[in-house]
Design brief:
Number of strands: 4
Shape: elongated
Structural class: mainly beta
Strand content: 35-45%
Mean pLDDT: 84
Helix content: 10-25%
Number of domains: 1
Order of helices and strands: HEEEE
Number of helices: 1
Radius of gyration: 17 Å
CATH class: Alpha Beta
Largest sheet: 4 strands, antiparallel
CATH topology: Nuclear Transport Factor 2, Chain: A
Length: 107
């Protein structure tokens, strides 16, 4: 058994889960948005939700995917983003796409 992995909490790169410091939500989002921007090549418009998780944070981030004129017809996408407790991006997934003018339907 590897002594560095005796409790099974080693992560890629040799850091333990316990070694990640939970940063404030604003800092986690700043770091995560920078990484998402680099991956997508687009700057997010807004954050529609942020929730703490055991691993860090989960956020819904809105991004303009296709800019159109008038702006109300631009195509938006909602991304679910998983962030580690220190703000590093763990993964993301595009959810629904919609026009900027679209309003949520009552459930």
């Amino acid at each position: 058994m590897d002594p560095d992995d005796e409790n099974g909490s080693r992560e890629a790169g040799g850091a333990t889960k316990e070694s990640y410091d939970r940063v404030p939500p604003t800092e986690a989002l700043r770091v995560g948005v920078e990484q998402l921007t680099a991956l997508l090549g687009r700057t997010p418009e807004s954050v529609s939700s942020l929730k703490p998780t055991d691993e860090g944070w989960t956020a819904q981030i809105e991004v303009v995917e296709i800019e159109r004129i008038p702006e109300t017809t631009s195509v938006m996408a909602s991304y679910e983003v998983a962030l580690r407790s220190d703000g590093q991006l763990l993964g993301y997934e595009r959810g629904k796409r919609y026009t900027r003018a679209q309003v949520d339907q009552n459930r």
